[in-house]
Design goal:
Structural class: mainly beta
CATH class: Mainly Beta
Radius of gyration: 20 Å
Strand content: over 45%
Shape: elongated
Strand order of the largest sheet: 1-3-4-5-6-7-8-9
Distance between the termini: 41 Å
Helix content: 10-25%
Length: about 130
């Protein structure tokens, strides 16, 4: 009887807790990297070094880890585009990661704190590329 009770409890825990523990790990490579740089008081367009990211979506794509900020809060805000995941940095509102689950393409924008808008020396950069599952 103890074994049956333990088995039932374990099954219930897996069924209830399983989806909450689900995570998707992706290896993402930027193929494009562009933005604005301030040099000698003047802004100009510039190419940036392409980056690689190992990211982890948790809790059914509601949380993203692995980018420059600690974590990103994510949602699928467009009902007609259910595969589109939009993530915003929990720390810096200027960082956004957009991922499409079907095409596996992403854009990652980091507009710095200020950058061009505030006439600061921070650079504004946009990366675009594709991801693959581990």
């Amino acid at each position: 009887m103890k074994n049956l009770t333990a088995t039932i409890c374990l099954t219930i825990a897996v069924l209830i807790g399983g989806p909450a523990l689900a995570e998707t790990v992706l290896y993402c490579q930027s193929e494009l990297a562009t933005g604005f740089v301030k040099q000698n008081g003047t802004y100009r367009e510039s190419s940036f070094q392409k980056n690689r990211y190992t990211i982890k979506f948790k809790n059914n794509y509601s949380l993203l880890l692995g980018l420059e900020s600690d974590q990103f809060k994510c949602s699928a805000p467009y009902g007609i585009l259910p595969n589109m995941i939009v993530c915003r940095s929990a720390r810096y509102l200027t960082e956004t990661f957009i991922y499409d689950k079907s095409s596996q393409r992403f854009t990652y924008s980091n507009l710095g704190i200020g950058g061009y808008v505030m006439n600061a020396t921070d650079t504004d950069v946009l990366f675009a590329g594709t991801c693959k599952r581990f």
